[in-house]
DNA sequence: TTCGGATTGTTCGATATTTGACATTCCTGT
DNA sequence: ACAGGAATGTCAAATATCGAACAATCCGAA
């Protein structure tokens, strides 16, 4: 599992699980064990390319050690990261399931060890365990719902309204205060605005008593209220 | 099937299949027949609410006749539509699969007849047909890939770059010219900008020879080139 | 405790977008 | 052929955001 703050109630995980479909963890223990036991581990050096976007998928990856950055190379050669994944995290399952090319590049960030789970093995395990397949269906459906919700919430409106919707969403939309662990840069990236603009919007939401800003975290006093605010 | 222009090669469908997860059609014929045969049909009058966002799912819908608008009510009471679905279209499968509340409201637009496929029946059919479940997994994985790609492409950058990325994406990213059936207002909605801004971006892309504008359609001369353009 | 890197807070001129409006074109039904 | 509604093209003042920079705060490692 990645560095998710789970020791404290009310703290929600950061975004990496939303933007990078980590489906491996939705599988039952037995399926996970089976996949892991038959999969070879490879080592990568800092900056080494693991997989390229557009390539045909022959397997997916489970990170054993180190950090892998998942994202996309820009025309300028720069790498735009969507997620930073660590030990226990997985990526690349979607391409296997959809039988379509990979949509992301992946790079080692520092030395990394990555376990490759072959597509054929994955299909065999799924075929022999309908409960595993159903669990995967459920996890993917939930993620698709969240992604569509996120898409709907950030598409248009003033930055202020969009920030309200995003935070209400990330804080789970309920009526209890929730603290979201996220940097303002990440919020800015999600909304597609500059950090300065995101900061200004957050400052206004805080001034209105809807949120409290702290270092690398935002406390949402009433997530449902923020969602409503976003729809105005 | 909804009003998709399939008679002409190079014409891609509009967005409704992307923004509304119509998974029913990914099922094998036998599974579809089985679901349809046991499902009751209900009639709705113009403007009648069919389902409300946030409600627990007991089934999903297959449109028999008429038009259903799927989207979300704003705080002002206005309805923001995400998709307009017609005969043969389905919606609401995600909530069943994820076992989470519905994320959309749905309204009849004119008189409509809708077939309700119960969640329990759906689960039974899936459990008895692993091929159907695998097909659904694949369709959902593909859709999640597309949605994540869309999200990645529209999140930040100038409107011009984002429009380029979106069109490159919608046109399939290949090297052959493709015509995308879409209004400029729909492009604007997707990008979260006004129609005037979308039109200005499109005009510039056309001036640069990358696209050709026509009524309710955009021809993308080389989709792969537009995608690259978006990443600059 | 100190240091260094990351993150946040803020500012302001430059640039982009919105808004509201009007004109023109397109398409479909009668 | 005509009418009406939808879609597109365009414009300019008002408003929002970007970009670059600097200062302040936070946190983890030594």
UniProtKB/TrEMBL annotation, chains A, B:
GO molecular function annotations of the record: DNA binding; DNA-binding transcription factor activity
Alphabetized Pfam families for the sequence: cNMP_binding (PF00027), HTH_Crp_2 (PF13545)
Superkingdom as given in the UniProt entry: Bacteria
Cellular compartments per GO CC: cytosol
Domain HTH crp-type: 157-224
Keywords, alphabetical: DNA-binding, Transcription, Transcription regulation
Domain annotation Cyclic nucleotide-binding: ranges: 23-143
Protein name: Crp/Fnr family transcriptional regulator
Organism: Tsuneonella suprasediminis
